[in-house]
Amino acid sequence: MEKAENGADAQAADPDAEAAAPGASFAQLHQRALDLHRSGKLDEAGAVYRRLLAGAPGNAQVWTNFGALLRRMGRLGPAIAAHRRALALDPGLVGARVNLANALADDAQCAEAEALRRELIAEAPRDPVRLRDLAAVLRAQWRQEEAIALVDGAEQEGWADDTCRLQRGLAQLMLGYWRDGFADFECRYADGEVSLPADVPWPRWQGEAIAGKRLLVLPEQGFGDAIVMSRFLPALCAMGAEVTMLVKPPLRRLFAGLAGIRLTDAARRSDDYDFYTPNMSLPHLVGMAGGIPPAPPLAIPSDSRARARALVAPFGLAFRIGVVWTGSTTFKGNHLRSTGPESFLGLAGVPGVQLFSLYKGPAHEAFLASGMAGLIVDACGADRDFADSAAVMDEMDLMITTDTAVVHVAASLGKPVWNLLSHEGFWLYGKGETTPWYPSMRLWRQQQPGDWDELFARVEAALRAHPGLLERRGHA
Predict the structure, then answer these.
(1) Do 101 and 111 form a contact (C-beta atoms < 8 A)?
(2) In this structure, is the dihedral angle defined by the CA atoms of residues 315, 318, 320 and 321, taken in order, positive or negative?
(3) Can you list the pairs that 32-37 forms with residues at least 24 positions away whose Cβ atoms lie under 8 Å?
(4) DSSP label at 438?
C-alpha cells in the first residue's frame, strides 16, 4: 500500500523558453497534461507530455511528471529512466527523488529505493510521509521488526500518523501478531488506497454489544478478501447479531449456504440496520480465540458439481492440476504477483499431468492466443461465477497458482494448494511455508524479486516427485 509523497508525482513546471507546439504556450500544454493525468486519462496525458518533451527536453519537472504517469500505467522500466533523466538535469529536485524511489520500490529494486528514502527522511526527519515510505520499503525487504521499531519510535516522539501505523500493522500481520496488527490495520483508510462508503446512514460498528442488533457487513476490497473474511461471519451470529452481508453477484451462490446469514445485492438508505462494518474489520472486532483463524464456511451447489464432473471426465486417470497465473488486472500490485501462462510449460510436460486453467477475466483472450491453450484446458473461461469455479477446483488433485482469489476458494475447500508468491507476498502468508489461515496450503516464494523461472523450476522438481502423481502413474 504505497502511495506517492504529498507534493511529488505530477507537479506544475516552470514555463520553458521553447514552446512545445505552435499555438499553445508551454505552460498551457503542461497544465493540459496535468489535468489529463490527474483525471485518469493516461494515454491522452502521455501524448501531451511527449509533445512537451519534444520541444523542451531539458525540463526536469516534465520528465518526472512523465515518469509518474508511466509508473501509474505499470511501465516501470521507462518510468525509472524518466526520473533518472529528470535528476540528471536537476539533481536536487525533491519530487523526482521521491518519484524515483516509488518507482524503484514498485519494481522491487528495494535497496536503491531505501537509500533514497533514507536521504529524504534525513532532510525532513519528522515528516510522517517519508517515514511511511521508508517503513514500506523495509517491509518489502522482510525487515518487519525494523519497520515496527521505526514507527514505534516516531509514535513515542508524537509525529507518526495513521499512514505510518498502517505500515506497522502490515509488518505485525506478516509476523503473525494478529491482535496488534489488526488494530493498526484499522488505519488503512488514511492512505487513500481504500475508503469507507460515503453517506452511510448507519453508525459504524466499533465492537459494542451486538446481541439482537441488525448488522450489515459490506465488502471492502477484492473477491479474495471477501472469501478470507467470510470465516468470521459465524462468530457474529454466535454473538447474537442479525447479520446481512452485501455480496457481489460472482460470490453469491458460493456464500448461499452460510447458516444464519442473509445475503443482499444492494443496501438502501431506507434499510433498518443498527450498525454496519467493512468485512476487513471483522478480525479486529471479533478476534481469534487462541490466536487461530476460524475455518472458512463455503459450499458448492450441486448443479456446479455436475458441470465440473462432466468437464474433467474425458481426462480419465490424469493427475489434474488447476492453474492460474494472474489476478485482477486493476490491482496496483498485480504485476508483482502475476506471471504468464507460458510459465507453466514445464509443468504441462510432466508425464501423467493435465493442467486446467481456472482463469476467467480480461486476460482470457491473451491466454487463448498464447499457445498454452490446449496444453492447459480452458476450464473456467465460461464460468457463471465462483461457485462454478469452486466445483472445478474440487475435481482437481492439486492447485498450483499465483496469489489470486482462486487460491482462497480452493484452500477454503481444503484442497491441496501450492501458492506461488512474489518475493514480499501478502501479510496473510507470513514468512514460512505454511499459514494457519489455510492448513492445506503450501507457500512457494521467489528467492529473488521478480524471478519466476527459478521458482517454477523448484515447483516442477517437486511435482515430478509428488506421491500422488507417482501413485496415479502406477495405476495408469
Answers:
(1) no
(2) negative
(3) 33/62, 33/65, 34/10, 34/65, 37/10, 37/65, 37/68, 37/69, 37/72
(4) B
Residue with cell 453477484: 249
Q: What is the pLDDT of residues 150-167, one digit of tens each?
A: 999 999 999 999 999 999
Residues pairing with 417 in the sheet: 399, 441
The helices-and-strands tally (H runs, E runs) of the chain is: 22, 10
On whether the CB atoms of residues 404 and 419 are closer than 8 A, the answer is no
- C-alpha cell of residue 316: 480419465
CA 368 – CA 361 distance, rounded (Å):
12
Which amino acid, one-letter code, is at 233? L
SS3 195: coil
Kindly report, residue by residue over 384-402, the tens digit of the pLDDT: 889 999 999 999 999 999 9
Is the Cβ–Cβ distance between 389 and 418 less than 8 Å? no
C-alpha cell belonging to residue 52: 512537451
Question: Cell 507476498 sits at which residue?
Answer: 425
CA torsion angle for 221, 227, 231, 235 (degrees, to 10)? 50
Taken in order of first residue, the domains within the chain and their CATH numbers are: 26-191 (1.25.40.10), 214-291 (no CATH), 302-475 (3.40.50.2000)
- Number of other CB atoms surrounding residue 302 within 10 Å: 8
Of 430, 425, 428, the residue nearest 411 (C-alpha)? 428
For residue 241, how many C-alpha atoms fall within 13 Å in the half-sphere facing its CB? Answer: 27
Helix (H) or strand (E) segment spanning residue 419: strand 417-421
Q: What separation in angstroms does the CA of 245 have from each of 186, 217, 237, 468?
A: 20, 5, 12, 39
Q: From CA 334, how far away is CA 329, in angstroms rounded? A: 6
**pTM tops 0.70:** yes
